């Protein structure tokens, strides 16, 4: 077994088919003699109904598509494992959280929310971060996002929210974007959205990579231990590479140059054997402390500040294997927050409660009936037995006479299990009250945490949020909606709302911001860890380079795990005068500066010098405007001096004796914000 094999991968093996080197047959196994021509009465005559091969092939093709997910349609997944490093036995009975060292196979699907299945990946949106743990006690699904709060508080509003954010129904525009009238009309008229909108306007909504974003279970769940003692919990997953983001112009350029940017990044890194890791942890609150906070812990528009409730990390998530077939695995995987194991339970969060219905329901339509749990990617790795029978595409062949409980003919089996035997027993929460359709008073503060988030941002992050608001609300055609948004966000920050009012041409707001001065440093991406590992450098190179210089620099980048693309005027290889050869794997027209974290400008000669120089200057200008580090080799000085980039922080020259070391540090830093390139 290599490192990426586990019980789930083994379970999938009998279903994996390799058609290479085989004979072409029908689905009945009949060998095919002709796959080029349908059966006709005469070479130019009518096609015959008798042609079963034609009919089977076309019919199957006609039925290849299934409905895309109503939300989170655009997604990408990989296999991996979860390894427990601290026992959580004290808090939960969950079998996979008992013994340190226990490994559990996992499957993670990342997604955007609003866009269709074929939409670009670097759009401004929340990212889904759904994990299926194939535990020995059944599948546990942690169906989270990369933002810790949500737009609404009660599930009954989800269809309204989704209708508002999706493309507008009369003209189906815009695709995969919240920058339009209906979303902002919804926001202003449903002010529980305020906190989440602050996150959506922030850099969190344009992650650099699936490998570099936080994950959150969002809802408050429960851990319950063997003795039946419960704690409220919130799940957190943190990437070991730190959480990093794109900047808006870059994200927009990437959406055009490589709409598959995020999946390509994940797929390539796993293919290259690079380490993709996150730590999994929980925040915990004792049952007795339920009402100790100035927010309601059942309200999914609120987070628990880490400074108040620290995260206890207990295990490591690793992704290490790409799927064999995206449809069979990534598309057919069916997540459901209701898939839990003993020791993990729900709370009365009204958003969570609605999800417990929705996910099962949606799979029935999407996967065509109740047997979707038998699809290989969805099967648990532990045995499963019950009296459910039949339905479309049933795979199991259940033997015997009995398919009911209780029975005597099969000795009352399959039989139930007690809590001690691993049976799922719902937490015996005490409930009382009147049946009522209402929102708790404790859910009504929509602005304090929105302001807490704003207070926690660095000046650069605040600038990005202001710009995002100006872009998004600036796209809204209705002046009344623009005014309502300005009047709403004055509650969060007066200066922000005033600037927005000016930018979107509406009256200055008259309200006041809420009186909250607290901040939570953990919310700022400024404080995230920074490493050079797996960041991508484009080496812009022509003929006549200094072989030794380039070789040494590239070697030191590779040593730190930096990924390098050699970008020339044409594909093939280039040689310097000492015979050092480099193989060009991208050209200045197949790629773009936005797709790199950093550039190394080697410069040199090319067949069409004028074009080579002007393409290189465009690359340098773009990287410079996007605040990226740029390394300049001795042969690159001339072209660099002809660009708009100016020497300063994050610009490193090969003539400096510590160049390689400093360049690697600058790559890890990723951005050098003090360049005077933007005013807005
Ligand atoms: Fe989902 N959500 N959701 N959601 N959600 C779906 O299930 C729904 C919510 C999330 O990669 C759907 O299989 C309701 C919060 C992820 O396959 C659907 C409500 C969070 C994914 C559905 C929410 C999420 C989904 C669409 C409000 C973060 C993708 C297809 C009550 C904690 C999973 C499907 C994947 C997918 C319903 C709110 C995360 C329709 C009704 C909050 C990551 O069932």
Your description of this structure?
With 680 residues, this protein is of the alpha/beta class. It folds into four domains: 7-62, Cytochrome C Oxidase, Chain J (Irregular); 75-177 and 205-378, Catalase core domain (Catalase HpII,  Chain A, domain 1, Beta Barrel), CATH 2.40.180; 460-526, Catalase, four-helical domain (Hemocyanin, N-terminal domain, Up-down Bundle); 530-669, Rossmann fold, CATH 3.40.50.880. 26% of the residues lie in helices and 16% in strands. The chain has 17 helices and 18 strands. The strands form three sheets. Strands 1, 2, 3, 4, 5, 6, 7, 8, 9 and 10 form a ten-stranded antiparallel sheet that branches. It has a six-stranded parallel sheet with strand order 15-12-11-16-17-18, sandwiched between helices. The longest helix is centred in the middle third of the chain and has 17 residues, at 350-366. It starts with 6 loop residues before the first helix and ends in an 11-residue tail after the last helix. The structure holds CIS-heme D hydroxychlorin gamma-spirolactone 17R, 18S (HDE). Residues 69-72, 75, 109, 111, 128, 130, 143-145, 150, 155, 158, 218, 300, 335, 351, 354-355, 358-359, 362 line the site of CIS-heme D hydroxychlorin gamma-spirolactone 17R, 18S.
